[in-house]
Amino acid sequence: MSGVSTPLSSSSTLTGPLSEPSSPKAQKAAHNSYDTISPLTAPGTTVTGPVAYTIEALAAHHSGSVVVFDLAEQAGFGSHIAQWEESSNVKLVRAQTRAGAGLGLAGRLSEGTSADGARTTNGPITAFTTPEGLAQMIPALSALPSPSSSGRLVIQVAAITPTPTLELTPTLAPAARAIASLGSDFTVLISSTAQEAADFAAISYSLSSHVVHIFDHSGATRETGKSTFPEVVSAELPGVAPFDYTGNSDAGVVLVLLNGPLAALARLLASHTPGLGVISVRSPRPWNAEALRGVLPESVKKVHVVEEVPNGSGSGPLFGDVLTSGLSGVTVRGHRIPSKQSEAFHNSINAFAEFVAGITSLPSGLTEAAKYKSLSFLSTPASASLTHLPQVTTHTFLTQGGPIAARLLSTYDALGSSQGTVISRLVLTPSNDEHLSKAPVSGIASLERQVDCLTIVDPSLLASHNTFNLVKNGAPVLVLASGGAPEVASRLPRVAVEDIRARDIRVYTFDAENAAAEIGGSNSDPSLLQTALAHLVLLRIYLGAVATPGAVQTLASRIYGDVVAGVSNRIVCDTAWAGLAGVEIPTLEPLAEDATPPKKLAAFAFNALTLDDSAYDGRPTPVTPTLGSWAEAAKRLMFREAFTPAAPAPAEATHATNPALRPDLAEERFLVTCTVNKRLTPLTYDRNVFHLEFDTAGTGLKYAIGEALGVHGWNDEKEVLEFCEWYGVDPKSAITLPVPGQPSQTHTRTVFHALQQQVDLFGRPPKSFYGALAEHAKSRDDAMALRFIAAPEGSATFKKLSEGDTVTFADVLHQFPSARPPLGELAMLIGEIKPRHYSIASAQSAVGDRVDLLVVTVDWVTPSGTPRYGQCTRYLAGLTAGQKVTVSIKPSVMKLPPDDMQPIIMAGLGTGAAPFRAFIQHRALLVSQGKPVGPLVYYFGSRHRSQEYLYGEELEAYIADGIITHAGLAFSRDTKKKVYIQHKMREDSETLGKMLAGPDKGVFYLCGPTWPVPDVYEALIDSLVRFGGKSQEEAAQYLEDLKEEERYVLEVY
């Protein structure tokens, strides 16, 4: 059985017409889907991030101060507002939840501190909390002064509550009793869907009363899906009625519920149940009995008030409100839902439908009528390379538009395993089904045999969790694992095998890591490529019978463009198609009577809002950059073990690494001393080629012939100070930055040192920088221009800026002055100065404790006349004797042949002569020791012998001594007809052909720019054909074989 030959789906899929995505970089768009939400987001903008961030943005923009209680932050609500504090002019206050917590709010409204006084005039005070926190502050809220234009309180309540079993639920039970005791100065709003939560949050800032807004933070406001950023208008309850009726106008039975997730499920049931109506109470305070009577159909005979209560005894306040509303000719009955039953209803619409059918005697037709699909993903922190697969898949459907509505909800189980589990559910519904497209994801995408397609991202879950119990009968399951189908089959526990066979579940596997390694190049991002491959495999399975190689490639082109993570679209699609395999499920032998019972597999639970904690899998908690005073550095000096533990030295290190040498870098580092900086070309010559020597004594630096030296260069001091003055930062102040590769570690240095030695301020910005910078632009024109450059439509502009004007990060900031991120965030957006690598121009065996470089200064003039300089060559050109430089060693393909008797043919252009100087020095050493060596042929090319014959005196001496057996020197500008090294090589065709094709196994090396490679290749082919006894085709294949044997080595740039 294989995935290629077996039909992938016998069931229908929910699909719509494909359209161009909003961005060709699907992964990046998915990763940053909510980064576009901020206090400056324009009303009416369609956003795809969690609505919780919209609520935070509204609070930041329309409040004078925001009080974030600890329970809210623990629930993941209020964590983003700190980054907007300065830009939105809102004061952020953090507070603890305890008895009388509301007294602080009352005090702020009544008096206000001197710091707060001016802030409250800018808007109301907003408090972020949870139902438990609201209950704690209710007694103190009676002391609030009456609302006024200069003093008003808005409480945004994230409805998420832990149960006795530590599972998280959106139950309204704790909040219902609390709001019942609120006075007439309060308006209470309850939202159940994502868009409704955004709209009600906006309405909170348009009312004249105190407001409590309760929203579903267990699901609705954490979903990834489309919503519209709302507008705050001045009106009383604009567009909102206290009660919302759903159902037929002639319904005989009506359910009344507070407008939470259960109300959304009830509305969905009513839309498929004749005779049933639902009234959702959206504003229970102040209670409006007349409005309730107005929405109740005249045909109604029975009203069932359904409300969640902390325990099974006693009625909630809603029943009393409805009962006293004067509903004549109607029987009103109350139904209490205790916490355990409430939890079951929130997690399964089928369970809730049975309950509703039981109390109303009206069976639901939802199961037969509802059309939706549920795709789920199971992962752990260990599956980091495929972390964004759910978001990328969701983005595919979000950008389709048309008939499909897509919503993604991720829940976390921190207790089911040592590293925690992530359960991501993607629900696809018809966008024209008002109730189905807004129903709670956890209710309609139950984890009890309701999943249409399951992807297991971390195969270790097969052995520990009851993964297959999630899917419907006959559903496909994709396991992303290495080892192939037999390996996956061997991992299946007995319980899983029995379930798969009994319910005809189809299991497939794909090795994303190995597939990405096979087709990825040096410039490919392995994580992005693995995600793209897994994404296309999943779409193939989802599309089922309509999936063909051509259809998948067309889909990939529309999602990713012609290139997927640096690899051709066609290659990625072919790899994804060929790599999918079906898993043959083994036949089980009956268990012996005395056999150990099969291990019980764990179920999945929702008991955490994130796994981004060091408690899971030993992963560090990321830290954010901060700008501060010298005290930050002092703390790290006094408590260095806690703040700056030394990075471990590599296993192969021969000495202890000095932790002061760039502790943010993983590779082994050395501090060397510049002893010689000598210009090799005349001062009148337009190219500054210079020779450097560094003393390595006592550093432990060892290098092999042909290796490269990584130089950690600095930015120009004058330019850094000028930027600090323009940006308005004190270069002597301290900045704390996360250590790259060690996100829980930080290091503190002055702003000047960070910008000079670490932040690539004068490097070239990628396209993504423009998009990220747009979020900080205060000018609408700047924001629009930056977003245009970052978009596909701005490719021509980006190319002109990058390749024509060669703008730097600093230039872009100057060009768009209203975009000024905080310096710490700017440093993270820009990134690190990368070490520049230069071929070492010395053999340590010959020179001892010394390392030499051959460097040419890189400079040019832009079309506008602005001079530009290569960052590192400029730094190296300015070195003086005695100056310290941080360096590292990088291996290279330029290695000496294993046999000293093998002929060596070297071709170097300009500074490409550097590694060959090392080769020659080593051969000269061997000769001086009386050891036999093979012939050494050297080709060198530059423009003028008198000006750019690099190391000419040394070379002439080596030629005279016979170290260099033959030299082909090509100075292209010294003769009327330009002569290049390939011409010299053709003159020596016989020598080259016999050396390369003969028994001595000669080795050819080329170092320098890429442009002569084709001509050099043809010269070698010609020598092999004329004097190596080969045909044209045989010669070409022979050179390919030499590459594999490392006898035809190119290092070009």
TrEMBL record:
Q: Name one Pfam family in it.
A: NAD_binding_1
> Where in the sequence does UniProt note compositional bias of the Low complexity kind?
1-24
Entry GO CC: cytosol
Q: Which domain of life is it from?
A: Eukaryota
What keywords are annotated for this sequence in UniProt? Electron transport, FAD, Flavoprotein, FMN, NADP, Oxidoreductase, Transport
Per its Swiss-Prot or TrEMBL entry, what cofactor is needed? Answer: FMN; FAD
- GO MF assignments: flavin adenine dinucleotide binding; FMN binding; sulfite reductase (NADPH) activity
Which CDD domains does the record cross-reference, listed alphabetically? CyPoR_like
Q: In which pathway does it act?
A: Sulfur metabolism; hydrogen sulfide biosynthesis; hydrogen sulfide from sulfite (NADPH route): step 1/1
Domain (FAD-binding FR-type): residue spans on this chain: 667-898
The chemistry this enzyme catalyses reads:
hydrogen sulfide + 3 NADP(+) + 3 H2O = sulfite + 3 NADPH + 4 H(+)
**E.C. number:** 1.8.1.2
**SUPFAM superfamilies recorded:** Ferredoxin reductase-like, C-terminal NADP-linked domain, Pyruvate-ferredoxin oxidoreductase, PFOR, domain III, Riboflavin synthase domain-like, TK C-terminal domain-like
Q: Where does the signal peptide begin and end?
A: none
**Membrane-spanning segments:** none
Leading EC class: oxidoreductase
Which InterPro entries does the UniProt entry name for this protein?
CysJ-like_FAD-binding (IPR003097), FAD-bd_FR_type (IPR017927), Flavoprot_Pyr_Nucl_cyt_Rdtase (IPR001709), FNR_nucleotide-bd (IPR039261), NADPH_Cyt_P450_Rdtase_alpha (IPR023173), OxRdtase_FAD/NAD-bd (IPR001433), Pyrv_flavodox_OxRed_cen (IPR002869), Riboflavin_synthase-like_b-brl (IPR017938)
Segments carrying the region annotation (Disordered) are 1-41
Look up keyword Electron transport and say if it applies. yes
Q: Which PANTHER family match?
A: NITRIC OXIDE SYNTHASE-RELATED, SULFITE REDUCTASE [NADPH] FLAVOPROTEIN COMPONENT
Stated role:
This enzyme catalyzes the 6-electron reduction of sulfite to sulfide. This is one of several activities required for the biosynthesis of L-cysteine from sulfate.
Q: What is this protein called?
A: assimilatory sulfite reductase (NADPH)
Organism from which the protein derives: Rhizoctonia solani
From the broadest rank down, the organism's phylogenetic lineage runs:
Eukaryota, Fungi, Dikarya, Basidiomycota, Agaricomycotina
